[in-house]
Each structure stands twice: as C-alpha cells, then as structure tokens.
Write a structure and sequence with these properties.
With 132 residues, the protein is mainly α. It contains 3 helices and 2 strands, in the order H-E-E-H-H. It folds into 2 domains: 1-65, no CATH class; 73-111. The protein has helices at residues 6-15, 38-61, 75-110; strands at residues 17-23, 30-37.
Amino acid sequence: MSLPTPKQSRFKNLTNRYRLVVMNDHTYQELVTFKITRLSLYIMSCFLFVLLVGLTTALIVFTPMKYYIPGYGTQAERRELTKLKIRTDSLEKQMLFRETYWNNVRNVLEGKAKLSLDTSIISIPDMEPLTD
C-alpha cells in the first residue's frame, strides 16, 4: 500500500463524510441528521456570504437607506452643489482681480509703481491724397 501524496490527502480530507446530528437534550432523541463534508461546508459558507453581501447591497441601493451614506445625495442636491461650487470659484477670481487692482492703485498713489514705458516706435504710414 502506497502513502498518499499531500494533494491527495488534502482532497481526501475535504471529501471525508461527517454526520451532524441535532438531538433533544432531555430525551436524547435525534431531531435532524445531516451528512456533510468539509468541501460542502466550505461551499455553503461561501454561498451564504455572497448571498448576504448581495442582499445588503440591494437593501442599500434600492431603498432610501442610501441617503444615510456620507457623500450621497439626491440629483437635485448634487446639481445645486455644482452650481454653488462654480459660483464660489468665480467669486474667488473676482476677489483676486479686485485685490490686484487695488494693490496696483495703492502702489501708484504711494509712488512704488514700476512703470514700464512703451519704447516701441509707432510708425504712421504716410497717406497719399485721393485723386479722382
């Protein structure tokens, strides 16, 4: 008789049959008997896990419970939030432009302004008189 290899022994352990008996504690009467293997127990527990995750996800997605999730809101709230964000950004730009303008005015009044003179020569073409 040859010794089983490790893979065979693992598979053999998964397929060994066991008996699960539920008995009445007072009368020792067998109420329910199950014949199970480790493999069937593993498959059943995976199936129950996937089923519970699916039911929980469906409960959250298809009921008003989704509104209790932080960051989730109605479509109207998201639209309003987008409008407010755009408006806030434009107001921040306007404040920056005004602040820059008033800083330039203050620098001119205090004499700290750096004037950059236009040194390019403007050439005006000579106009020939129109003759008819």
